[in-house]
From TrEMBL, chain A:
This is Chromate transporter. The chain crosses the membrane at residues 7-28, 77-101, 113-130, 136-153, 160-178. It comes from the Bacteria. It is found in: Cell membrane.
Amino acid sequence: MIYWEIFLAFFIPGILGYGGGPATIPLIENEVVGKYGWMSTQEFSEVLAIGNSLPGPIATKMAGYIGYAEGGILGSFVALFATIAPSIILMLVLMAILMKYKDTPQVKNISKIVRPVIAVLLAVMTFQFLKDSFSSLGMIYSLLMVIGSYFLLEKMKMHPAIVISIALAVGAISGLIIY
Amino acid sequence: MVASAKEKQREEAKPQTRQGLRLQKELMIGNFRTGMLGFGGGPSSIPLFQQEAVKKYKWMTEEEFADTLALANTMPGPIATKMAGYIGYRVGGIVGMVNALVSSVLPTVIILISLLQVLQAYKDIPWVKHMSASIVPVVAVMLAQMTWEFVKKSGTTLGWKKAVILILASFLLTEVTHLHPGILIMILIISVFIPFKRKENPS
């Protein structure tokens, strides 16, 4: 049942993604690309890239789109519900209790201790994206794009949306020349 | 005395439901704005939330906002929807919550779906393929930046020795032994509470 799969694919990242939206990205990738095989790394990166260049929370944009691609409008709603509802229900229920313990080290430690795992998941994803890029674009072009976008993002502090647009323009022009 | 104290507590715990369509309209506009202007994902929309909830519409005080944010940070899931949902619930009940969530989430989802459908329609033309493939290395750089931020933050909050050990261990577990990352995260969360129990029975 596709809707149940969609629900699970976004429910798990939703309840395990400590550290906000970005922390759920590798978990979503794990389900959508790794477990269910709904899209390839390339397709996932397109969704992520365009999602990143648009406003709004990233996790819900990913869920809304992937849910729609797999199960239409209802699929989109199922994915959004699975992403949002568990953490909000948890928050409303636990708010009163946690308010009392919010300064205890245990509660604060949760996000601290989960962070290194997310770092590893992100690093693995970075590597997969690079590998994918090398095989589809070739090493030299990929490296030029990596160096160029690193320079624009990190040194020039350019907005991701602008860098993505530049990458699309460069890709379109060089694509027209090659083909 | 006990009963009245309890009653008072319940009164405080109950969300302060303000009446009327005007409130719902404010919730809708405020959350639509934070959703549409929050470039860079959830965390970047937090100052926008504060602007709407504390400064513009005065749904909560500065301190309440800080408390809500601190607590939302300790819970899993996307931060922006937790903030929108909770603030919506506090000022407008269940209807307020649904209203706030829909207003902040749906517009951007619709934009993403329509943009990607345009791309899908033309994706088999070679130069379009090359164009969309060109995004992959850029996303790799963005992910690398995020990775580095998480590593740095781990180092400063846990201490570098502990952080490096945890990073190496989780790499081995997820990549070499193929443990599901969710299980690893769950084990770590449980482990946080174990020393707490030990402290309870003094030895």
